[in-house]
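2024-03-11 09:14:02 DEBUG pipeline.ingest accepted 1 chain
2024-03-11 09:14:02 DEBUG pipeline.ingest length=142
2024-03-11 09:14:03 DEBUG pipeline.predict start
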Amino acid sequence: MKKTPILAAALLGATLVSGLAACSSNSSDDDAKPKPSKSASSAPKAVTGTCVDGFMLLDASEIGTKKAATVTDPCETVSIVGADATITLGDVTNLYFEGDSNKVTAGAVTNTFFAGNKNALTHTGAAPTVDDQGTENTVTAK
């Protein structure tokens, strides 16, 4: 009778048991609550009302009590969030309406995307390509 397979099986079993014991968790670790990292709390706030690297965010809630803003510098992409603002823009390649009831007068606009409702765009130049996922949005040439 050979003892080698039995010895090998015993060593393998002992190795598995000791390996699993090292993986078991301590019950006090399970109750610990995760803490947010410093980088999450120190993330930079989005710049609004300024075209940075070809992108500008306009937040109607940050425009002020008159809900009016004028930014005439051209910008590749402008995203308007919030509601009930009157905005004047320069030339824009991609204009996104992500809020409702905003009135925008702009220079030339290449593409317009409506995700909100009851927005109005008045533009100069050729008619933009329009992707309208909302309702009652209008695009008018000046």
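2024-03-11 09:14:41 DEBUG pipeline.report The two ends are 100 Å apart (CA to CA).
2024-03-11 09:14:41 DEBUG pipeline.predict end
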